[in-house]
Amino acid sequence: MPREVLRFERPEPVPAPPAPRSERHEPSQPRPPVIGTPYMRAPGMTCQELRSMEAMARDLHDARSRIAYHHHSIADMSDVVDAVCGYAYSAQRTAIRAMITSAIAGGLALILAVALVWVIVFWG
Question: Alpha-carbon Rg of the chain, whole angstroms?
Fold first, then answer.
């Protein structure tokens, strides 16, 4: 009998070819894909305005990634607002700053109220 029949030899596996590499280095967190949703495509929009709208999602993602990575080095709250709301109009930016400030003030007021109740209950 031929040798191939007696021994069940398997052919050597052929290694897969390497995956093609892109010329640009991919970021550690992939950017979200650009999706042309209907509300982004207004009838009178120029090509430049459309590209600017499509770039917003990517830039917002990059800004949030920078904030998440460099959260220890942010000195001022306005840096966060400017990074996240870079495309917002000044009125929207002012409103967002007011909301953030009022949220911080509300949190401090709540902490003060709890401390006052604690002092009255336990030391009063």
Answer: 29
Residue 57 belongs to a domain: yes
**Whether 95 and 83 share a structural domain:** no
pTM: 0.29
Domain that holds residue 107: 90-124
The burial class, CB within 10 Å (0-12 / 13-18 / 19+), for 102 is exposed
pLDDT of 82: 63
Pairwise CA distance, residues 29 & 61, whole Å: 9
In our burial notation (b when 16+ CB lie closer than 10 A, e otherwise), range 55-84 reads: eeeeebeebeeeeeeeeeeeeeeeebbebb
